[in-house]
Amino acid sequence: MTPPPPDRPRAETARLVDYLAGELARSGVTHLFGVGGANIEDLYDAVHRGGTVRGVVAKHEFSAVTMADGYARTTRRLGVVAATSGGGAMNLVPGLAEAYASRVPVLALVGQPPTGECGRGAFQDSSGRAGSFDASEVFGPVSRFCARVEDPDAFPELLSRAVAAARTEPPGPAVLLLPKDVQQARIRRPGRGAAPDLPAPRAVLDTTALGAVSDVLSGVGRVLVIAGEGVAAADARAELAELAGRLGAWVAVTPDAKDVFDNRDPRFAGVAGVMGHANVEDCLRRADVCLLAGTRLPLLARGGLDRALSAAEVVCLGPEPPFVPGTALRGDLREALRAVTDRLPAAPRACPPHAGPRPRPLPDPDGRTAGRTVRYPRAIAAVEAALPQDAHVFVDAGNAGASAVHLLPAPRHGRFVVAVGMGGMGYTFGAGIGAALATGRRTYVLAGDGSFFMHGMEVHTAVEYAAPVTFVVFNNNAHAMCAVREEFLQGGVRRDDLFGRTDLAAGVAAAFPSLDVTRADDAAQLREALLRGNAGAGPAFVALDCDPAEIPPFLPFQSFTTTDRTARNDHEESSDERGAVHVG
Length: 584
Hints:
By secondary structure, the chain is an alpha/beta fold. Helix content is 37%, strand content 16%. A six-stranded parallel sheet has the order 3-2-4-5-7-6, sandwiched between helices. The protein has a six-stranded parallel sheet with strand order 11-10-9-12-13-14, sandwiched between helices. It starts with 12 loop residues before the first strand and ends in a 14-residue tail after the last helix. 53% of the residues are buried. The model is unreliable at 193-197, 366-370 and 563-579 (pLDDT under 50).
């Protein structure tokens, strides 16, 4: 590294990390999430000295990524995470994989050993030299852009390229590997035109494809719209509602997009796919056209619908091609929705009658309940009764998550987020904190005890930063979704996923005396605890016991219920006879 010439005024130069912190602040980033360490401490020092971006220290790097992810999903801004080298860096990978799969713009700043020590036995060397593995080859497959910064003067351009890659369709993570000496180097401040958070470029709509889609929708009869998370990412809810009104369409949503259309609107058909409602399939069978908006319709969103989809004409609006055959209008979703709407008659149409998103009937647990437990429908009803309409909801994997997706209406003015990209357990604990700190809104985290044991100690982070998060942990003392599969698909020969009883509320209360903790024995106590948490300014924690034998509203488990076995005898064709749905 060449030192600056003596005639260069120090005011024109800055430590690279100070420049970086300043550029993040100038581009609108308000929080940097991560875990510290020797090879990233200079960045934390710069953030602290800058005083504009708030540094948030998580308990684990996976959760730090999900904090940045939750921040990005609720603000539509770039989420930023920082971690040190070695194990800290490697812990970022599953979180970045979720952001990659779910198209979430995240910038990861990853510390590395000093350049002069790489390939010479450096501690936590991942330069790819002298037999060490290459971190860029690890992060490359889970990022839109990855670069090791070896020349400090090249950093402003690399930062700009990384941010642009994270925010350009399809968005996702970008990774910059920052050796410690590079972080400490002084660089010349570029001109003010080098802001890293420039608007992401938009793809121009194909007029031929627009014409083809418009021809399909012109004068069409019944239309089912299935809307996905891309509607939220594009901030296109109003455009979606206008198009649905012009078409007189029913509107269903994918499991990760419950908030993109008012769940109480008469047009709302329910959730599509394996956690969804039978009414969606009924509407699809009656529809002349199925219009996909902001979703490629992956398996979780189309499970049980394949046969009905094959009989319908499908059109798709969004930047990426769908997973099902159809006529696609690629490009910016918001512009596509507006362009298609402009070619339709201005008068809204009434949608045809439909049954609405009625919950699947669930069986009693056949007397297998041990002790006092709260059934999922009652618990979710209590959550619905207490949930503020401007709150955010983050739903974790497992039986509790499937029940929430199926039963809980999305708040009218908040996000309803399910991480279906990788489906990683424990995602919500960090993501909910990131969302709450970013927006200041009450945020609900709905998770099972399995997810809690993975990353639930981020409750400590919520306490430390007074984040307005309400953690609701449905404790069935099991990895219950796995246990259900073992019982019904493997003959019940194993009990590996059934655990001894744990009193989570007592443990959390002892660990965090200042935290509002409740053990709810029934739905009424759950609702009271949630309302009390809403009235507070900081975090709250509620645990309730559930039954591991309770079968959730999850299509692959439908044949396990007494109700659906009877239904198969009463009806000519069931979802099971239409073909098995394999998930996980």
